[in-house]
Inverse folding.
């Protein structure tokens, strides 16, 4: 049964609200002040909270703040009910995370409508979250085992050949097999590191209070991008395809370690999803108060629908194209940028190429 917590220091009004909600079939808990309201919320974990603002002990704003920083109540719908109805009060409540605001005196139907609306919205959000988790689980099961097993099979195969025929192998054969083992190990290591990073980032999105990093911003994003671009071109054996545009330096809020990861994933994707002989162009410029790091390839591109559905463990047309990876690169990049109040822009044309831009907040 749906439970409601009513926090109000006016005894008569509180009891009236409780009676109305109980008549509608809700389980209702009452609290006579802010302190008791916080205790009741943490103890009973209600499905929705109705709270007055002007109260002894803790006011409604304090109640809201205390509950929003607690993981068990952070997502509980919260409705303020108060006689204070000027815009400044409403803006303050909403900025702190309130879901709705009903003004005293209110009718029974107004209160019930507000409760019904917020509970329906919460149920929709819950269903959407469950759908997203199920989708992620299916993509994880279909792509991650393959991406981990493939390089591991190569590593074990080369190692077994070297162990069985060590006395007969030429130096060139040993170098070739060792190179295969290193390549497979690097691929496997990259997959594992990306998976662990993605899991950490998802945890930070669910609990942003933890923050991500105390690393200071960097003032040399252009220099960093140039170094990484050359390194990635070398790894893909495509140094001749690299085109460096203007790569200016300017202070940004993202630190060097995080920016390195973002740049590596963008450049790696550009080489991975374009053919040898086609150019990969990189530039970094300051525009409209942001630093824009852009990577352009001339590969197979994406449809508008695919661009809107960038997600972890989601690779488009994998059956049609043989490719490494499990779709974590852009998903990680997107999450990292969001955590620093920045964003990822994607412009892509099928069979023509993709332009990906990290729009980074300046410091």
């Amino acid at each position: 049964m749906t439970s409601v917590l009513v926090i109000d220091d006016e005894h008569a009004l509180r009891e009236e609200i409780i009676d109305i909600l109980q008549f509608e079939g809700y389980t209702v808990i009452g609290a006579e002040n802010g302190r008791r309201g916080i205790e009741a919320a943490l103890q009973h974990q209600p499905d929705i909270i109705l709270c007055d603002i002007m109260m002894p002990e803790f006011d409604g704003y304090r109640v809201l703040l205390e509950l929003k920083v607690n993981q068990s109540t952070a997502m509980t719908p919260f409705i303020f009910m108060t006689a204070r109805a000027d815009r400044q009060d409403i803006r303050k409540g909403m900025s702190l995370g309130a879901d709705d605001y009903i003004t005293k005196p209110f009718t029974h139907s107004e209160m019930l409508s507000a409760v019904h609306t917020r509970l329906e919205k919460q149920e929709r959000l819950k269903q959407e979250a469950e759908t997203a988790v199920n989708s992620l689980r299916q993509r994880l099961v279909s792509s991650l085992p393959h991406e981990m097993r493939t390089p591991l099979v190569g590593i074990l195969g080369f190692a077994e050949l070297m162990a069985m025929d060590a006395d007969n192998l030429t130096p060139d054969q040993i170098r070739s097999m060792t190179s295969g083992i290193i390549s497979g190990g690097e691929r496997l290591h990259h997959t594992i590191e990306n998976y662990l990073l993605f899991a950490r980032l998802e945890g930070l999105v669910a609990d942003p209070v933890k923050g991500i990093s105390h690393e200071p911003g960097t003032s040399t994003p252009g220099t960093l991008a140039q170094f990484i671009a050359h390194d990635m071109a070398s790894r893909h054996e495509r140094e001749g395809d690299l085109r460096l545009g203007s790569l200016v330096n300017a202070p940004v809020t993202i630190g060097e370690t995080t920016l390195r990861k973002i740049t590596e994933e963008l450049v790696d994707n550009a080489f991975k999803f374009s053919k040898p002989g086609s150019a990969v162009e990189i530039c970094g410029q300051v525009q409209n108060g942001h630093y824009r790091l852009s990577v352009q390839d001339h590969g197979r591109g994406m449809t508008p629908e695919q661009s809107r559905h960038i997600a972890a463990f989601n690779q488009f047309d994998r059956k049609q194209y043989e490719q490494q990876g499990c779709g974590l690169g852009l998903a990680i990049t997107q999450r990292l940028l969001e955590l620093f109040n920045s964003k990822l822009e994607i412009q892509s044309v099928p069979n023509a190429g993709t332009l990906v831009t990290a729009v980074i907040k300046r410091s």
About this structure: The longest strand covers residues 353-361. The mean pLDDT is 86. The chain is about 50% helix and 15% strand.
